[in-house]
Amino acid sequence: xxNQIFLRACMKQKVERTPIWIMRQAxxxxxxxxxxxKKFSFHEMMHTPSLMSDVTLLPFERFDLDAAIMFSDILVxxxxxxxxxxxxxxxxxxxxxxxxxxxxxxxxxLNIEYFKNIYDGINTVRKNLSKSVSLIGFSGTAWTxxxxxxxxxxxxxxxxxxxxxxxxxxxxxxxxxxxxxSISKYVNGQIDSGVDAIQFFDxxxxxxxxxxxxxxxxxxxxxxxxxxxxxxxxxxxxARSISSxxxxxxxxxxxxxxxxxxxxxxxxRNTLSDKVSLQGxxxxxxxxxxxxxxxxxxxxxxxxxGRGYGHIFNLGHGITPGVNPESVQKVIQTVKNFSPQFK
Length: 343
Ligand code: 1CP
Description:
Helices cover 46% and strands 13% of the residues. With 343 residues, the chain is α/β, with parallel strands linked by helices. The strands form 2 sheets. Strands 1-4-5-6-7-8-9 form a 7-stranded parallel sheet. Helix 7 runs parallel beside helix 10.
């Protein structure tokens, strides 16, 4: 474990340079991904262990990254509970049925077998991945997953979940409990299968108010982070519009806070009294700019964290499909060339 620079940074230990990986690094911006996707469905790619492993490792044919993220999706949790989705071009994941009533929530029932192929995939990746590279497992948070289960598809404002939590708290908490139970079992299974760290994506954290977050989402986040912490594995909590929940972040007790691109790393580091590691936070749109801009903005992120250990370089949200892979190379080179001066 000490040989993995990513894990050392998660624990704020000494590193010679800032480690780097990219959110959504095994995705559609890679021509190799798009080629595989022509031959297989998204679900086949997630649930065929050898294919899942190949796709997870795709970015390593081009880039020298410090962590791999298993190829899967946050929406496997609703599927484990009996819902199913298809990817509709131009729309994204669309569920065949959505939650519309209390009885729909009561019907949700965890099928633990659903995760088996994913665990086999993790096992395969860990065998094929260099020992010095960490493997990150992940899940969505209960809040973020519930947003999709209630809407049935991506939405502009995810208002259905706020209606449910205010109008019918009992049904809301039943839903959140069922999701949390599935997440806990799922991340434990991922750890048993060989992941080195777990990241929780709270991508829809911007659709809850600051005060409501404390009551309706924070307890469930703390629950799943504690599950991971109890296993002695680093936990990463990534949220969007993080400024509105800064005051709760230490309470979550994660090893690493994933910072979205809207806020300066120095501000987060100072607010959290330098107590946890930070991951982030280059604006993904910078990757569409010239090499000069990419280099300058990457250096600004390194500088905003400043001196000392506990920084993992990443984007402030997922890489977008239109990015040229050469631009990713430029970011990696810049981090490797310039970060040693901040250590
Ligand atoms: O080929 C395709 O069309 C599939 C596109 C795709 C991919 C490559 C989807 C559908 N999911 C994924 C993989 C994925 N999703 C990974 C593993 C790959 C990697 O990181 O390298 C991960 C970590 C996710 C996580 C995920 N899925 C999140 C959280 C991260 C984020 O971007 O905020 C979310 C919100 C999803 C839902 C989802 N799945 C797919 C899409 C297009 C979406 C977004 C839907 C929306 O607009 O809300």
